[in-house]
Design goal:
alpha/beta, four-stranded antiparallel β-sheet, seven-stranded parallel β-sheet, 15 helices
């Protein structure tokens, strides 16, 4: 991002390994996190409007903390406050770098929220672009580029490139599915849906059954933090210290409960697991301010936000998540009832290919 801003990438060929993660990485690099110290630097560098900056900051702080009852909550930012701050910054004489980037962020194409710290009564302002590729329209259109993905056909990446008129001229598939080890997949029919009252109990009972008699490491993937911690606590009551939460130092027969992003970032630091339990298929929650803002933008355009955004991004996570299980010749269990009850569950199964069905469970066996 810095090289592009400084004009160092002109007449260069660009190669992007792990291109399926490019959008997320660009968004993280472009995004802004404005902390209380950034407000202090802004006031010190603009003494003529210091009082107005302080009044605006205090007004925003009172509103944010009055809207959240839980500790360390997240609040969507009011667009009107952004425009008021923009008008105020226009009166400033010297702006720190982060505020210069803030002025360039268009409110309608950025997600904006506050993360509150009730203990210190402070908050940080998070701003991230909905479509980071728009910031590199000229770069990807005018430079030769190669995008390398490991997740097969990536519809999200292709649609993002198409949105900036940079559709690839050539698409080449390397490797064959037949060369991959087939997964042993346990996915019973007639499982309850995650939004039902009995789902937490179903998840506990099935996880206990899958863990019993298994000599190796089990990993349980659930992005819902409350549900994940509840399950970890209940399993620890039965299996004791074997059960851990997002740690890279489990026992040889340990049970690791984690979110999807933690597993994808840290599985290389762990022994190969013998079993992967998918508690919830990683469909992003609309409670995330960033996801909610992206969905709202797609709704305004009349687009199918589930099949164009949430589902493809979930499918993108599956191949790298199960790759360690292919190497260990272990088994994968999917306990999310939506796999069989929703039409899009067939796409999940296609993404996991090759796999063989596992109809019954036996200790230390995947057949």
């Amino acid at each position: 991002v810095r090289a592009s801003r400084n004009g160092y990438l002109q007449s260069k060929q660009l190669i992007f390994p792990e291109a399926e993660l490019l959008s997320d990485r660009l968004r993280a690099s472009i995004g802004l996190s404005i902390t209380p110290s950034d407000w202090q630097r802004l006031r010190r560098s603009n003494p003529s409007i210091e009082g107005q900056i302080l009044l605006l900051y205090e007004r925003m702080s009172r509103r944010l903390f009055s809207h959240v009852s839980c500790s360390d909550g997240i609040v969507r930012m009011d667009g009107s406050e952004i425009f008021v701050l923009r008008d105020l910054l226009a009166l400033g004489s010297s702006l720190p770098e982060i505020w210069v980037h803030f002025l360039k962020a268009e409110a309608h194409s950025w997600a904006s929220w506050a993360e509150l710290d009730h203990k210190l009564l402070q908050w940080s302002w998070q701003l991230f672009p909905l479509d980071p590729f728009q910031n590199f329209h000229g770069l990807f259109k005018n430079q030769p580029a190669i995008f390398i993905t490991s997740a097969g056909e990536n519809t999200v990446l292709l649609s993002e490139l198409k949105s900036i008129d940079s559709t690839p001229n050539v698409i080449v598939k390397l490797g064959e599915f037949s060369l991959e080890e087939p997964l042993s997949l346990f996915a019973p029919r007639r499982q309850p849906l995650p939004n039902t009252e009995i789902y937490a109990r179903h998840l506990l009972e099935q996880s206990r059954r899958l863990i019993l008699g298994l000599a190796g490491i089990t990993v349980i993937l659930i992005d819902d933090q409350q549900l994940r911690l509840q399950l970890a606590s209940e399993l620890a009551a039965e299996f004791g210290r074997r059960v851990v939460h997002e740690t890279t130092s489990p026992e040889s027969n340990g049970v690791i409960c984690s979110g999807w992003s933690w597993w994808l970032d840290n599985h290389v630091h762990l022994p190969l697991p013998e079993q992967l339990i998918i508690g919830l298929i990683p469909i992003a929650s609309l409670e995330s301010p960033l996801i909610a803002a992206r969905v709202e933008a797609m709704k305004r355009q009349g687009r199918d936000w589930f099949r164009e955004l949430l589902l493809p991004e979930a499918l993108r996570l599956l191949p790298p998540a199960v790759a360690p299980i292919r190497k260990s010749k272990g088994r994968v269990a999917i306990l999310d009832g939506r796999l069989r009850a929703r039409s899009w569950g067939k796409q999940v199964l296609r993404t996991l290919e090759p796999w063989t069905p596992l109809h019954r469970l036996m200790p230390n066996s995947s057949v």
